[in-house]
Amino acid sequence: SKNYKIAVLPGDGIGPEVMKEAVRVLDVVSKKFGFDVNAEWANVGGAAYDESGSPLPESTLKLGEASDCILFGSVGGPKWEHLPPNLQPERGALLPLRKHFKLFCNLRPARVYKELAGACPLRADIVGDGFNILTVRELTGDVYFGQPKGREGVPGSKEEIGFDTMKYSRYEVERIARFAFDAAMLRNKKVASIDKANVLTTSVLWREVVNEVIKDYPELTLEHLYVDNAAMQLLKRPREFDVLLCPNLFGDILTDECAMLTGSMGLLPSASIAEGSFGLYEPAGGSAPDIAGKGIANPLAQILSVALMLRYTFKEEEAAKAIEAACEKVIAQGYRTGDIYQEGCTKVGTTGMGDAIIKALA
Ligand code: NAD
Ligand code: IPM
Ligand code: MN
């Protein structure tokens, strides 16, 4: 029978709490749909630093390489933010993983469940019958990775500077634009490309390339939006968006906004994929130090990331849909973690939400 090898990297903060639920759900789904999962756990981020002195130990990287994909929790927290950059969970583990596995494309599907329309901070007449926005975020370029980066000058002096380089190659923009356009062809055929072409040279190239690539997709409607305007338009007319094509930094920022539009940071899953079938699947949100260790984090983003993993790496569409349907069902049944709680609903913790989803899958 089919045997899938997964590296499970729970990370820090709420990571291990929500990961536990996600893997329980994966176990149930694998039995139901007839595939075996060989899940091997390893430390990453702050947890790995505390244990071994490195946020990304060689053994963790090797495990990822020996696996079909990585299921990732989240990394970081106040405990590690004063370490030198290369030892920090984010810059020493997550970003290197994205680069190492060439995960150039980050998909963040944000949809409003009908029953959660009230959890969206926008007015009911704006939310209407909901929206469904897929952000396609470039993930291995931009100011995140552009060189040079660094600090210069006498430490503590007024002249001391810190700098990063925003940079995109034609190749990188074309590759992510095609991905977004292909995705839009299977959806509502509308793309908004996000840039800051009134200020940034990187964005001028971005816009130029996007305008070239769109010629191969005559059925699509394309609009260009400056990122500041996009931040505002998303609040004004979320239902009119379909696919958001974003450079790395702007995509990072706008997807937190998209997450909150769906009701909570704890609802947004993500797939970071390479060419081919390898991917890293993780919630869009972070380690949530403010609620970590309390058993109250919303596990839905992590569980929905499992669905994306089954869809994109393993092509188990039925199993992916079953997880998504179960999440929808428990929301319709009124189960709510604290972040999306509304009066009259059944308040559950992280494990309670996992239990409800497993029951819904049966
Ligand atoms: P965050 O996403 O961790 O938290 C922002 C807010 O959303 C908090 O109020 C938090 O409680 C809430 N939230 C997030 N996930 C939730 C969930 N599942 N259920 C309920 N509420 C949830 O962002 P932050 O506070 O800016 O960052 C905390 C740490 O996480 C930082 O170290 C940051 O670098 C890191 N981070 C990691 C990742 C990742 O590993 N992919 C992503 C984002 C941030
Ligand atoms: C995300 C996170 C990361 C990013 C950080 C933790 C490096 O915010 O996945 O959205 O900025 O990409
Ligand atoms: Mn982010």
UniProtKB/TrEMBL annotation:
Q: Tell me how the cofactor is bound.
A: Binds 1 Mg(2+) or Mn(2+) ion per subunit.
Pathway membership, UniProt: Amino-acid biosynthesis; L-leucine biosynthesis; L-leucine from 3-methyl-2-oxobutanoate: step 3/4
Which Gene3D superfamilies does this chain map to? Isopropylmalate Dehydrogenase
In this chain, substrate is annotated as bound at R98, R108, R137, D228
Limits of the Isopropylmalate dehydrogenase-like domain: 5-357
In the record, biological process GO terms are: L-leucine biosynthetic process
Q: What class of enzyme is it?
A: oxidoreductase
Please write the reaction equations for the catalytic activity of this protein: (2R,3S)-3-isopropylmalate + NAD(+) = 4-methyl-2-oxopentanoate + CO2 + NADH
Q: Which UniProt keywords apply?
A: Amino-acid biosynthesis, Branched-chain amino acid biosynthesis, Cytoplasm, Leucine biosynthesis, Magnesium, Manganese, Metal-binding, NAD, Oxidoreductase
The keyword Metal-binding belongs to this UniProt entry's keyword annotation? yes
Q: Which InterPro entries match?
A: IsoCit/isopropylmalate_DH_CS (IPR019818), IsoPropMal-DH-like_dom (IPR024084), Isopropylmalate_DH (IPR004429)
Question: What GO molecular function annotation could you give as one example from this UniProt entry?
Answer: NAD binding
Give me the residues that bind NAD(+), please. 77-90, 286-298
The entry marks the following residues as binding Mg(2+), namely D228, D252, D256
UniProt cofactor(s): Mn(2+); Mg(2+)
Q: Where is this site: Important for catalysis?
A: Y144, K196
Q: What is its main location?
A: cytoplasm
User: What are the subcellular locations of this protein?
Assistant: Cytoplasm
Enzyme Commission identifier(s): 1.1.1.85
Its assembly, as annotated, is: Homodimer.
Q: What does this protein do?
A: Catalyzes the oxidation of 3-carboxy-2-hydroxy-4-methylpentanoate (3-isopropylmalate) to 3-carboxy-4-methyl-2-oxopentanoate. The product decarboxylates to 4-methyl-2 oxopentanoate.
Which family is it part of? Belongs to the isocitrate and isopropylmalate dehydrogenases family. LeuB type 1 subfamily.
Q: What is this protein called?
A: 3-isopropylmalate dehydrogenase
Biological source species? Fibrobacter succinogenes (strain ATCC 19169 / S85)
Q: Which gene encodes it?
A: leuB
